[in-house]
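USER:
Try writing one entry.

ASSISTANT:
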Amino acid sequence: MNSSPTVPIPYRIIALVQERNRLFAYPLERLAGEIKATGFRCSCCGSCCSRAINRHIFLLNRDVADVKKIDPAAFEPAPDPEFCDQTGTFYVSGYALRIKNDKPGSCWFLENGRCRIYDQRFSVCRIYPHMLRRNSDNSGQVTWRQFARKNEHGQYHQDLPDDECLSLARESKEYENAFLTHQISFLETIHDYFSTHHLRHDQKMYDYQVQRVLQGRPVKVMVYHAGGLQEHRITKDASSWHDSCQSGVPDHR
């Protein structure tokens, strides 16, 4: 579980808007070329469907609507909340697929090493491991990262048709745009909500509530979804949250 950065919310919003603008400017054909050169093909190995590869799978609003139709028990508040106010309430930017309590930390829909809803899988599952985000490399230089967890799953150097590469590139950019837009809306909502209710992020309370989670005691969390905040109670059964607290590793996709 990772506390919110000390950068004021308005500055964080500006940074995300700038990141989204850079995303728009990134040539679609360039990403399609990277996808073709890498030649990734899903082998249905199930590796990316557990904590071995991904600590959790974040769901966009449209994904939450879909998962409710498939299995209403299959999602939960995403771990690693961004804020905690002085009353001890956590705030997180959305929902994630539920993780099982088995040893590998399998996705709710993974059975016998296979996704049982493969034809209905969600946005990030369809495009994974293709992505388009700016991250610091080993030297500290900020560069574009086009693939996640390269060579750790699936098949590489496969011959992918040009139209498939272009379609994947388009869907990847659409997902990243939707993700950034979601995060911007979340921060705008939190800024207004905190101002209206005279709240603030309290780091000491954040750390205290993390310990409550580790002790299996319930905590209140407000989840941003569909333009508003929805209240939930996190208990000892929330394995994703407990694991995030123990590791201290940022948990967002």
